[in-house]
Amino acid sequence: MSESDTEPNAEEMWDPQVARWRDPEGDYVLPHALRSLPHPWDECDWRRVAELPRTDERLAEARRVVTVLLDDPELTPQVPQPPSPGLLWHVWEAFHQAVGKRMPRTSDVTWSGVDELVRAWRGRPQLYPLQRHVVRHVEAPMLAMIPSLRDDIADSVFRWLALDPDPGRFADWAVGLAERYVAEDIGADSAIELLGAMGGPEARAALERLTVKPDGPARWENAEAAQGMLLDRWSDGSS
Fold first, then answer.
1. Are 151 and 167 in contact (CB under 8 A)?
2. pLDDT in tens, 207-231
3. pTM of the model as a whole
4. Cβ(102)–Cβ(117) under 8 Å?
């Protein structure tokens, strides 16, 4: 059966009703908090982040990044949820990757650049129905890109901190931030890994609190991951 013989499904016909957000500072797509991140945190390139030296300056920078990303309300937009079966999310992610390849830094992402990418997609010899949906309603995937970027950047910060030879040395500020990120399900896996890497009574107490929040802000998966880290890290009874 050819594509033209099939009936469009709910996702293909869905209207997300997302208006194009206009930034008073210019033709930007992303909020100021994302655009103003220091390099290379603004590029979501893990290879470059992993190579950063662990200087006091870089540690202070990493702390500022995860602090800024946590509390800015513009980074938690109301993203409409596509109808079942949710395949549109995968096409949104593919479009996000295309945006990142064309405009690698968060400050590079402009509506004019997005519209150029839309024209390039429309010029493809074959465009699948959900890809056509993206180029018709590009404002929706770009809105969804905001929390996605926040998650990716937070993930890279926590992964980088966990690579430190002695991550416990910044537990006084990182434990509380990591716990909040897990509770709010932002970069949660890497935040849990960092808590385990830091060790110590503060990190252990944070993980214990996270295991009993399945009905609160933490998801079941995060509570289970926190429990697993406790078992892996402290199963021998060490502090």
1. no
2. 999 998 766 777 899 999 999 999 9
3. 0.91
4. yes
Q: List, for residues 59-107, the tens digit of each pLDDT value.
A: 999 999 999 999 899 999 999 999 999 999 999 999 999 999 999 999 9
- pLDDT per residue as tens digits for the range 115-150: 999 999 999 999 999 999 999 999 999 999 999 999
Helix 171-183, helix 220-234: angle, nearest 10: 140
Helix/strand/coil (H/E/C) assignment for every residue in the chain: CCHHHCCCCHHHHCCCCCCCCCECCECECCCHHHHCCCCCHHHCCHHHHHCCCCCHHHHHHHHHHHHHHHHCHHHCCCCCCCCCCCCHHHHHHHHHHHHHHHCCCHHHCEHHHHHHHHHHHHCCCCCCHHHHHHHHCCHHHHHHHHHHHHHHHHHHHHHHHHCCCCHHHHHHHHHHHHHHHHHCCCCHHHHHHHHHHHCHHHHHHHHHHHCCCCCCCCCHHHHHHHHHHHHHHHCCCCC
Two tokens, residue 111: 């509506």
Separation in Å, CA 25 to CA 22, 31, 107, 169: 9, 10, 12, 39
CB 111 within 8 A of CB 39: no
